[in-house]
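Tutorial sheet, problem 5. The two components below are modelled jointly, 457 residues in total.
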Amino acid sequence: MSDIEQIPVTVTVNGKKVQRFVEPRTLLIHFLREELNLTGPHIGCETSHCGACTVEMNGMSVKSCTMFAAQANGAELTTIEGMANPDGTLSALQEGFRQMHGLQCGFCTPGMITRAHTLLKENPNPTEEEIRMGIAGNLCRCTGYQNIVKAIQYAAEKLNQPETQEAAE
Amino acid sequence: MIPGEFTYHRPSSVAEAVAILVSHGDEARPLSGGHSLIPMMKLRMAAPEHLVDLGGIADLKGISEDGGTITIRAMTTQHELIGSDLLAEKLPIIKETSLLIADPQIRYVGTLGGNVANGDPGNDMPALMQCLNASYVLTGPDGDREVAARDFYEAAYFTALAPEEILTAVKIPTPPAGHGYAYEKLKRKVGDYATAAAAVLLTMNGGSVASASVALTNVADTPLYAADASNILTGSTLDDATVASAVAAAEAITDPASDGRGPAEYRTKMAGIMMQRALARAADRARS
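Model answer (structure tokens):
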């Protein structure tokens, strides 16, 4: 056992405040998956290239494999587990990925959707190029990205229709 | 990949952070955005016993201008640089360069201070800072000192920064309104380091170059300020012969490694091409 003191980390994840005591070297992805049992964010490359571990932290998309849990202390986090609408129905992005076949094996999907969620908050009307550059930190080895871009366009269009705007978050 | 054990410190002031560095010497490392240090720690190529997270120091954030100098505090992220109205107006080359660094997720977290202090020759900001003739504010137990970006880099990962110092701000002389600028980066894919890249800043007077500054990324152990090339361009009309001789002078100071990005000769040539392209775009943008 380590003689290094465990430190408290308090975060609000998907609207719920939680605290755990962890070793300082605990990475945020391990904190989410192993301490909080949120296994939606995936461990892909572990080198901050693939984006499968992407979560939203204080309104920013971050790669949770390249951040210590301690750095997220006090933060608001959203993972793929917090993406669905409050009534349990699929969010516009989740629906878009299903309708437009935005996934095949699905490994990159939690990171893709979480990243796209933040992208659309910052830029509700992205061009195709802005979408492609916006998800440039997320790798997909199945789809060739075409249908992922279409899925995000589907969501943007749906969120921009006035009657669904209140369901945007 | 799990980093080695360390004691975590989260100081709330620069003075407190410096005091921690002083008491632990080179067993301590400051942590800014962490996108260089944490991967190194995961590979166990870095194993600091004390990690000093600068993320809680509010005083290390922000961009301001005063008396012809733009000051960017060290923990300002690439994302914040991209979103800054002040920089978009006065120093648009910063946004142009920031958008070529890594990917969106990393730009939310990666900081200017970390990028320039780390001494990684692959980083883009060091050459840009040399091009802009920036200086770095290094804060240690005896207070602040300033070191010019052009004097800061000694070898790969070796810089003028002492173990008990923190790079707290970058100061950039505001270039004249109407200056021309461009950063050209050749890379294999989004997120890659440059095969070669060049930063150019130009001011024009009538049809001739009033001042020119050229710097190169990732074609030597350190970023390179191309002093000879800059001098050759100054006073010229950017005629083909002058540009060719300036490009040759810049290529002559490169000393790239042969690696996955290409053989050394190729990377030297690409540095010349990037410089030529940056020069052409900067000249287009410059107002006389």
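Marking note: The CA atoms of residues 102 and 148 of chain A lie 4 Å apart. Full credit if you identified this.
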